[in-house]
Write a structure and sequence with these properties.
Blueprint lengths: L6 H4 L2 E3 L9 E3 H5 L14 E5 L2 E6 L13 H15 L7 E4 L1 H7 L6 H16 L1 E4 L14 E3 L2 E8 L5 E8 L1 H8 L4 E3 L10 H14 L6 E4 H8 L5 H14 L5 E8 L2 E8 L29 E3 L9 E2 L8 E3 L16
Length: about 350
């Protein structure tokens, strides 16, 4: 009787390419939906999101918590490697091997002992976090939906030298993630300074703005309340809005200009791509062009469940047909050593 092959034995091994000059690439799905915790403290409260026929649930275990947006740097590294390999005519694989040094340097982190330990903790969270989503799943013949459940990393192992130092990390990416990255139309390039963004909301908002704003000269905008729901953040909505206003005041997102406006008692965040090499200026008080469209182009947010600081198991329900975003008609330095930090 033949022995059943393990998943690892069925995959070819992909050795990480040199990262010098490699563009940062991210999967659009991960940029558009709340897949990650935005806090550095451990989050156990599940993230639940449902809108426009898409649902997702993200859960963590008490020992590690839900994978954070800083842990997602590992996935950005993986996506960048996969796309670069395809461009060079090399067959990528879900089974990847690299040294911790290579991953840390790509993510513009330090390479001290604490950084290596933080990377290991990030890999543990990526493996122990479970995601269940209907995103990119075909509808069943009876009209029902399929939910794909996975962890970002199926498994990982580390090779340790006799002196205790790491000699390499081997990991197996989730098929759901790998398949999405292999479809290059579902991948976007990030600004080279992305890793220098230190805040969780700051990083999340850049990814969302990059996904929706792209290089559209007319820009895009979101109602502040909808942004709050899309973030999956645990903080109170008014604290979240104040944080976003601060980012607009500082013009904190590379490559984009932000402005906050109020219309009919509703607060909106508008954004558009900066002209190449244009200096960043404070546009927080600048008025958005008067011909901004008010028609929503996204599906209404029918349901969103998550915790909050005050009510950790509460469910927020919002209905309405016009909640969403609309088009607006109008060598890197090392980042602060907060990425991969154990929460």
């Amino acid at each position: 009787m033949s022995k059943r092959m393990s998943e690892r034995e069925q995959l070819s091994l992909f050795r990480a390419l040199p990262h010098d000059g490699m563009a940062l690439r991210d999967a659009q799905d991960l940029m558009a939906y709340p897949f990650f915790s935005l806090a550095k403290s451990p989050r156990i409260v599940p993230i639940r999101f449902e809108a426009g026929g898409i649902s997702l649930t993200v859960e963590g275990v008490p020992e590690h918590g839900i994978a954070t947006i800083w842990d997602a740097d590992v996935l950005i590294w993986a996506a960048s490697q996969i796309i670069q390999a395809k461009k060079e005519g090399i067959a990528p694989s879900r089974l990847m091997v690299a040294t911790p040094y290579e991953i840390l340097r790509f993510a513009q982190r330090g390479t001290g002992r604490s950084d290596y330990l933080a990377l290991r903790a990030a890999l543990d969270r990526l493996q122990s976090t479970t995601v269940a989503t209907t995103l990119r799943q075909r509808e069943r013949p009876n009209g029902g939906k399929r939910a794909h459940r996975f962890s970002w990393i199926n498994e990982w192992k580390e090779y340790i030298r006799p002196d205790g130092r790491s000699d390499g990390i081997e990991l197996i990416l989730a098929d759901w993630f790998f398949t999405g990255v292999m479809e290059e139309a579902l991948v976007l390039t990030l600004d080279p300074t992305y890793f220098r963004l230190s805040g969780g909301i700051e990083r999340w908002l850049y990814r969302l703005v990059r996904k929706h704003g792209g290089r559209q000269p007319t820009g895009w905008r979101f109602e502040m309340r909808h942004l709050y729901l899309k973030s999956g953040a645990l903080q109170r909505s008014r604290d979240f809005a104040a944080h976003v206003r601060g980012l607009a005041l500082r013009q904190a997102l590379p490559g984009y200009r932000l402005s906050v406006e109020r219309r009919g008692g509703i607060e909106w965040l508008a954004f558009h791509a900066c002209p190449e090499h244009s200096p960043k200026t404070d546009l927080s008080t600048a008025r958005v062009e008067r011909d901004l469209s008010t028609a929503s182009v996204e599906e209404p947010v029918d349901f969103m469940g998550t915790g909050s600081v005050d009510h950790r198991h509460a469910t927020r329900v919002i209905t309405g047909a016009n909640i969403g975003g609309s088009p607006a008609q109008n060598g890197p330095q090392p980042a602060p050593s907060n990425g991969f930090e154990p929460p």
